[in-house]
């Protein structure tokens, strides 16, 4: 109904946490025998293949997989660099594929239909959720709800007075934004003292970065959008059948070229022999005449 203009174009709120898929690494990484912070290339390749090779959204699974290898595995880790780089890259891959890229597509779809869209990324990294021994810190899946509803988290045992103050500030800001949105359809109406939250623009991909000091930014999780919503879609649209046909023609042409060169070489060889014989016979006839 929204597409044909019959339904009222209600404002839409869309958002993700900055490190959505990291929750699995945070929880499982603490289990004995499950070190999720270290990956070698072989294990990283297997994880990428598991995500892409059978996914229902794709047709050219092999092309998509090879693209992911380059984007998230081969193109990042330099020689002698820590394997932690690969684990963080794989976290980004899952976050971008499962959350960030779909969020952009959803925002674009509603914006194209004329509905006001407000896009956010929950970027507040709370010290209360991590200890000094933790190898990784970030805003994982559900962190925005933890702060919106002031929920207790089982492994959040590191509270200090300063952390509590900062986290409380984030909760107050986030709850005020969503209350305003639910009340008037605008997170920051004219009477709000918070940073002006501008509606989503398909050119800027602008969004509100939610921390204890929220600010507007552009290019919402751009790497994930550029790869999954643009490059991967183009890879999936490639006509693999035509590529195979072209490759077969190319190999056939190479065979013809090789045969041509062989024939030409043979012709030149026999021509040289014939010319040599002709010269020999002419010289012999000349010698016979002289004698």
Automatic annotation (TrEMBL):
UniProt entry tagged with the keyword Hydrolase: no
* Regions crossing the membrane: 258-281
Q: Which residues form the Carboxylesterase type B domain?
A: 7-228
Q: Which Pfam families match?
A: COesterase
Q: Entry's Gene3D superfamilies?
A: alpha/beta hydrolase (3.40.50.1820)
| Keywords (A to Z) from UniProt | Membrane, Transmembrane, Transmembrane helix
**Family according to the record:** Belongs to the type-B carboxylesterase/lipase family.
Protein name stated in the entry? Carboxylesterase type B domain-containing protein
């Amino acid at each position: 109904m929204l597409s044909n203009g019959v339904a009222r174009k209600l404002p839409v709120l869309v958002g993700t946490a900055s490190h959505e898929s990291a929750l699995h690494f945070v929880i499982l990484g603490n289990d004995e025998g499950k070190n999720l912070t270290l990956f070698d290339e072989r294990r990283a390749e297997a994880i990428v293949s598991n995500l892409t090779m059978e996914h229902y959204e794709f047709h050219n699974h092999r092309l998509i997989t090879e693209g992911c290898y380059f984007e998230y595995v081969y193109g990042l880790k330099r020689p002698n660099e820590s394997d932690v780089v690969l684990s963080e890259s794989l976290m980004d891959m899952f976050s971008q594929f499962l959350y960030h890229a779909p969020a952009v597509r959803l925002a674009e779809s509603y914006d194209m239909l004329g509905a006001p869209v407000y896009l956010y990324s929950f970027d507040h990294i709370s010290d209360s959720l991590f200890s000094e021994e933790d190898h990784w810190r970030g805003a994982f899946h559900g962190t925005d709800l933890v702060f919106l509803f002031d929920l207790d988290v089982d492994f959040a045992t590191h509270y200090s007075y300063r952390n509590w103050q900062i986290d409380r500030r984030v909760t107050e800001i986030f709850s005020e934004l969503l209350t305003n949105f639910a009340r008037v359809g605008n997170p920051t109406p004219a009477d709000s003292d918070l940073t002006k939250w501008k509606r989503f623009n398909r050119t800027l991909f602008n969004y509100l970065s939610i921390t204890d000091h929220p600010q507007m930014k552009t290019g919402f999780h751009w790497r994930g959008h550029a790869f999954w919503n643009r490059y991967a879609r183009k890879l999936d649209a490639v006509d693999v059948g035509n590529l195979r046909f072209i490759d077969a023609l190319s190999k056939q042409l190479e065979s013809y070229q090789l045969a041509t060169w062989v024939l030409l070489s043979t012709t030149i060889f026999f021509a040289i022999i014939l010319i040599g014989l002709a010269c020999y016979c002419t010289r012999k006839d000349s010698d016979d005449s002289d004698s």
